[in-house]
Amino acid sequence: MIHSEEIESTIDEVMGNNPRPDEVAEMIAALKQRYVTFGRECERSEVPAEKKKWTSKMKEVQNQIAILEQDYAVAKFVEFSVLATITKAQININAESDKE
Length: 100
What we know:
The protein is mainly alpha-helical. It has helices at 4-15, 21-44, 48-99. Helix content is 88%, strand content 0%.
């Protein structure tokens, strides 16, 4: 039986320097909070140039969120694929030992 530490280690190895899905989700949440903060600042601002600055920052954060959401989907797929491969290998090992 493969232990969870080995599974986690294998996932980390496959992911390389890329963040795990949970880490990406935290980044997305932080950016969403930043977006809300920028929105409040934009609403408070009465100077058109300031509103434009906050709107620009909000668009930048939206783009970052969109990129991270794609990264999240890829990371989740990789993590799931590793888990599925390990599970299938374990099932095959168990089936072979049952035959003996």
